[in-house]
C-alpha cells in the first residue's frame, strides 16, 4: 500500500446539544448521549472535532443549568475544565471565510439555523467532515454544497447507530 494513501480515521464533529446532553444528567437526551459516547466513540478510533463557538454555546447552556440549581458547581467546573483544558477533541478555528459562509447559510436557511449552527456547517464543508453527533434535526436536511458525499450521523432517541464514513 502506498504511504500517500494511508488510512484516515473517521472524523466526527460534535455539536452543542450532544455535549450538553453528555454533561447534564437531567437532560432528556443524557442517557442516549452517554450510550453513544460509551458504545461508539470510546470503542472506535474516531477523530473528534468541534469549534470554539460550540464550546461557548455549550458552557452557556451548562451555566444556565447550574444557575437553575439542576447541576452542582463541582460538576459544572469539571465539565468546563474538560471542555476548555482537555484535549478531548480538536477545536477547529473559525476564520473570516467561515464566518462569511455562515452568514450566507443563515441568509439561505433562516430561521432553521443559529449562527453557531451555520458556522458548524461552514466548517463541515471547509474541512470535508462527513459525520456529526447532534440532536439537532436541522442538520439532517442541510444540502452540503462543496461537492462531497454527505453521510451525517445525527443521533435521536428513536434512531439506531449509523456507521461512520
Structure description:
It contains seven helices and four strands. The protein has a four-stranded parallel sheet. The chain is 48% helix and 8% strand. It starts with 10 loop residues before the first strand and ends in a 24-residue tail after the last helix. The protein has 165 residues and is of the alpha/beta class. It has helices at residues 16-23, 30-41, 52-67, 73-84, 96-109, 115-127, 138-141, and strands at 11-14, 47-51, 90-92, 132-133. The relative contact order is 0.18. Helix 1 (16-23) packs across helix 3 (52-67) and helix 3 (52-67) packs antiparallel against helix 4. It has one domain (3-141): 3-Layer(aba) Sandwich (Rossmann fold).
List the helices and strands and how they pair.
Layout: E1 11-14, H1 16-23, H2 30-41, E2 47-51, H3 52-67, H4 73-84, E3 90-92, H5 96-109, H6 115-127, E4 132-133, H7 138-141
Helix pairs in contact: 1-2, 1-3, 3-4, 5-6
